[in-house]
Amino acid sequence: MTYETAIAALADPTRRCIVERLRGGPLPVSALADGLPVSRPAVSQHLRVLSGAGLLQVTPHGTRRYYGLAPGGVDELRAWLDAMWDDALAAFAAEARLEARRREKERPR
Amino acid sequence: MTYETAIAALADPTRRCIVERLRGGPLPVSALADGLPVSRPAVSQHLRVLSGAGLLQVTPHGTRRYYGLAPGGVDELRAWLDAMWDDALAAFAAEARLEARRREKERPR
DNA sequence: CATGATCGTAAGTCATCGCTTACCGTAGGA
DNA sequence: TCCTACGGTAAGCGATGACTTACGATCATG
């Protein structure tokens, strides 16, 4: 449920750039806007999306608000990826069995 | 580089539905289109995007093409997530140190 | 060889989304 | 108390993208 909004939030290049800029630690909005090719209101809108997805957390300090990566923010997303692609191995085995069955059906011709 | 197209491909709900339907093993296009709320050409377009992102692999068999999850298709995406959010712990430590420094600066007043 | 089934592609339409400018509320310093 | 910095919000615009219908190509089957 939440991993859907998380992956939607991370799909935007500008938002990924924000995430990468937050690797070093929390930053206020103005510091984030400097160096980004978009205006400051655009950054605010992106921060709203990222926060809404549970990827960022805010700590107001005076007039400036520090945005930082939320620990465990991508846990559900990782869990979904694992659920899909770990079963893919089993699917691979299934496909191998299907292939074997197809050969078996072809051989007697 | 590839994780960007992968996350963009997985951002669409219909494409995620396709991925989930492929957990049980490869399927031809018609079988995928049945049960999805979109037309068959739409499914073909989604499959093109997913394949282009390295998430799916195709095995033509006669007139029908079997689409299946590509093993290791999300490896780069997982690596990127780890690189971001594992360093987030270090960032958290950095923020803690920053907080400590702020208190230290406030205390002597 | 002809026919039907499977699937990819092209063109067009409509909604969603990201960006901008303009505006407003709020906290801190002179 | 003014005023300046910081940042969130609203409205409008342009572009990207997802979907549909129509068409064409290919392979198996009668």
From TrEMBL, chains A, B:
<dbReference type="InterPro" id="IPR036388">
    <property type="entry name" value="WH-like_DNA-bd_sf"/>
</dbReference>
<feature type="domain" description="HTH arsR-type">
    <location>
        <begin position="1"/>
        <end position="89"/>
    </location>
</feature>
<dbReference type="GO" id="GO:0003700">
    <property type="term" value="F:DNA-binding transcription factor activity"/>
</dbReference>
<dbReference type="Pfam" id="PF12840">
    <property type="entry name" value="HTH_20"/>
</dbReference>
<keyword id="KW-0238">DNA-binding</keyword>
<dbReference type="InterPro" id="IPR051081">
    <property type="entry name" value="HTH_MetalResp_TranReg"/>
</dbReference>
<protein>
    <submittedName>
        <fullName>Transcriptional regulator, ArsR family</fullName>
    </submittedName>
</protein>
<keyword id="KW-0805">Transcription regulation</keyword>
<dbReference type="InterPro" id="IPR036390">
    <property type="entry name" value="WH_DNA-bd_sf"/>
</dbReference>
<dbReference type="InterPro" id="IPR011991">
    <property type="entry name" value="ArsR-like_HTH"/>
</dbReference>
<dbReference type="GO" id="GO:0003677">
    <property type="term" value="F:DNA binding"/>
</dbReference>
<keyword id="KW-0804">Transcription</keyword>
<dbReference type="InterPro" id="IPR001845">
    <property type="entry name" value="HTH_ArsR_DNA-bd_dom"/>
</dbReference>
